[in-house]
């Protein structure tokens, strides 16, 4: 009985093996993280500009 179950399982696996197809995607996977990077750059530039204006008030008259 055990032998018969092993044979049936093996034949089922062979029969179903032809139905499964694995294919790589045509286009690469793209992960867009630009939003956070842009926000950090803007904040950093804003702080640098504010420090520059405070340290050199003669360069930026009001």
Task: Give the helix/strand layout.
Blueprint: H1 2-17, H2 34-55
Question: What does this entry look like structurally?
Answer:
Pfam families: Lipoprotein_19. This is YnbE family lipoprotein. Keywords: Lipoprotein. It comes from Sphingobium olei. InterPro entries: YnbE. This protein is an all-alpha fold and 62 residues long. The chain has a domain of 31 residues. Helix content is 61%, strand content 0%. The chain contains two helices and no strands. It is rod-shaped, with a radius of gyration of 32 Å. The termini are far apart.
Strand composition percent: under 5%
Mean pLDDT: 76
Shape: rod-shaped
Structural class: mainly alpha
How many extended strands? 0
Distance between the termini: 95 Å
Protein name: YnbE family lipoprotein
InterPro entries: YnbE
Keywords: Lipoprotein
Pfam family, one: Lipoprotein_19
Q: Care to give the gist of this entry?
A:
This is YnbE family lipoprotein. The chain has 62 residues and is mainly alpha-helical.
What keywords describe this structure?
rod-shaped, YnbE, 62 residues, 61% helix, mainly alpha, 2 helices, lipoprotein, YnbE family lipoprotein
């Amino acid at each position: 009985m055990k032998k018969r179950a092993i044979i049936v399982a093996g034949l089922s696996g062979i029969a179903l093996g032809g139905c499964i197809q694995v294919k790589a995607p045509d286009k690469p996977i793209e992960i867009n993280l630009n939003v956070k990077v842009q926000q950090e750059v803007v904040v950093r530039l804003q702080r640098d500009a504010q420090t520059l204006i405070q340290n050199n008030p003669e360069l930026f008259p009001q």
